[in-house]
Amino acid sequence: MSKRGAVLFAAMGVIWGIPYLLIKVADGGVSVPVLVWSRVTVGAAILVPAALAQGAWRPEGRAVLRRHWWWLVAYAVIEIIGPWALLSTAERRLSSSTSGLLIASVPAIGALLAWLCGGGEKLTRVRAAGLALGFAGVALLAGPGAGRGDLLADAEVLLTALGYAAGPMIANRKLAGVPSIAANAACLLLAAIVYTPVAVLTWPHAVPSARVLAALAALGAVCTAAGLVGYFLLIAEIGAARATVVTYLNPAVAVALGAGILGERLTPAIGVAFAAILGGSVLATRGPARVRAPAGGPSRTRPSDPAPET
To answer: How buried is 228 (Cβ within 10 angstroms: 0-12 exposed, 13-18 middle, 19+ buried)?
Structure first.
């Protein structure tokens, strides 16, 4: 990984480890539609002017967006509109740390999707074992006494993880020609339009507390605007498959914040499940084995192994 890739990876690990805490705080003061609407509206308010300044509304910029409009809509639905509502709803019944740990299954789900979609990924025995181990960890975390949630909330978070795994595939394969700021600005604007009617109907009767307002602002500015642009840059730098591995860092941040700030209790079952999910994801996304070249020559991948997706 290049230095630029390493910096982006570390930054995204922190930026996308924070939302679970912020969502938990905001959930206590506003409805889910208002929460998601606030998040996407603040993000759009930041990114739309930036996209316009970069020429997104010039003839050539509009032409690029028109050529990719269907995939922009698909990305918005799969990565933003659906998952953010599901995750915010689930966190009303799950701890923020449990939600973050369940999202750690994204790399394993991404590896399974890559294989099912015929993207050149070979399902080796090691990868299959990784998938089995990762999903066993998910089952343990979702079981009684571990996350202390309920099956519906667990399913909502896992559907969120499915969206987070499919979104980067769309971005990498179908939106590579669209500038990242323009693409994310368009998706956030679409999400804001979709959520506006429902947000109006569920608008709070009183002004939320300063703590809730600060959480909403941070969700929109940091975790949404900066997070989406940074993630597109990360995908461009290291590829979609490796970019999803940033979820190895997210759960650690989510657990630390949940325990340290919200006082969420950690159990041995959570620790075992976390290790299984991350270990399984590492194996499931394992790249081609490398063999040592003769002295003075570069290392090479084994011919039988597929090249990693970039």
So the answer is: buried
Q: What's the sign of the alpha-carbon dihedral 241, 69, 221, 88?
A: negative
CA–CA separation, 23 vs 308, rounded Å?
A: 34
The DSSP element (H or E) to which 291 belongs, if any, is: strand 290-291
DSSP 110-148: HHHHHHHTTSS----HHHHHHHHHHHHHHHHHHSTTTS-
Greatest Cα pair distance in the chain? 73
Residues 281, 109: Cα–Cα separation, whole Å: 8
One digit per residue, the tens of pLDDT, for the chain of length 310 reads 788 888 888 888 889 889 999 999 999 899 999 999 999 999 999 999 988 988 888 888 888 888 999 999 999 999 999 999 999 999 998 888 888 888 888 878 888 888 887 765 677 888 788 888 888 888 777 765 555 557 888 899 999 999 998 998 898 888 888 888 898 899 999 999 999 999 999 999 999 999 999 999 999 999 988 887 888 788 788 876 677 677 677 777 888 888 888 888 777 877 888 788 878 877 877 765 544 444 444 333 333 332 333 3
**Distance between CA 309 and CA 85 in Å, rounded?**
30
Q: Is 158 helix (H, G, I), strand (E, B) or coil?
A: helix
Measure Cα distances from 108 to 130, 138, 166, 174 in Å: 8, 11, 12, 21
What ranges do the domains of the chain cover?
3-288
Closest CA to 223 of 9, 12, 7: 12
Alpha-carbon distance of 96 to 269, in angstroms, equals: 16
